[in-house]
Amino acid sequence: MNVPAVAALALALALRAPASPADDAARAQVARAVDAIDRPTTAEEWRALGARAVPVLEEVVADRAGFPSRRAAALHGLAAIGGDRARARVLATARDRAEPLALRAAAIRAAPLLLHPRALRAALSPLLDDPDAAVRAVAAETLAAPASAIARRSEPRLAAP
After folding, report:
1. How far apart are CA 55 and CA 34, in angstroms?
2. CA distances from 40 to 37, 43, 48, 76, 78 (A)
3. Tens digit of each residue's pLDDT (9 = 90 or more) over 73-109
4. In 10 A of CB 121, how many CB atoms?
5. d(CA 137, CA 127)
6. Dihedral (Cα; 132, 138, 140, 145), 10-degree rounding
7. If exposure means fewest CB atoms within 10 Å of the residue's CB, which of 8, 10, 39, 54 is most exposed?
8. Looking at the domain assignment, is residue 4 inside a domain?
9. Are 123 and 111 in contact (CB under 8 A)?
10. How far is 88 from 73, CA to CA, in rounded Å?
11. Terminal C-alpha separation, the chain
């Protein structure tokens, strides 16, 4: 028996804080939003959940066993809420060749909500050389979208070029 490993695990479990009622509420609200079938969750509804939803949304996106549609909804939630963590997760997902096409496409389409047009060009241009033709097509469509379509978002959430 590996005593140090067991001791470390016991210590980690003892130090882990129990989920607060606010965490439980955020988890339940995110679950309802990503599982919505008949009516997609709007950007305003995602923003109303606020920053407390970000860690829960990140968990949903990171769950490779989860349904791609559920994970894509979580990406849209992250993009609507915005912030550095959301930006990093969306871009990492767009670039991850191990992810399903539906999820990569959702990440690529969410990127304009998080990036200034110049930063968007820099982030998505490498995907124009992706081995997957469908990823190349989604990246090209996203980059070719009119600036007015990309501008329909809350400017303070954009990353500077």
Report:
1. 14
2. 7, 9, 15, 10, 14
3. 999 999 999 999 999 999 999 999 999 999 999 999 9
4. 12
5. 9
6. 180
7. 39
8. no
9. yes
10. 16
11. 53
1 within some domain: no
Average pLDDT value for residue range 102-128: 94
How many Cβ atoms sit within 10 Å of the Cβ of residue 7? 10
| Token reading at 89 | 């997760």
115: β partners:
159
Amino acid at 159: A
Largest CA distance in the chain: 63
Three-state DSSP state, 127: helix
Q: Residue 42: helix, strand or coil by DSSP? A: coil
Is the pLDDT assigned to residue 15 strictly greater than 90?
Answer: no
**Domain range for residue 28?**
21-157
Cα–Cα distance for residue pair 139/104, rounded to 1 Å? 10
Amino acid of residue 80: A
* Residue 142 resides in a domain: yes
Asked if 139 and 108 touch (Cβ cutoff 8 Å), the reply is yes
User: What's this model's pTM, rounded to 2 decimal places?
Assistant: 0.76
Residue pair 83/76 in contact by the 8 Å Cβ criterion: no
Q: How many domains are there within the chain? A: 1
Amino acid making up residue 29: Q
Q: Which two tokens stand for residue 45?
A: 């509804």
* 16 vs 23: CA distance, rounded Å: 14
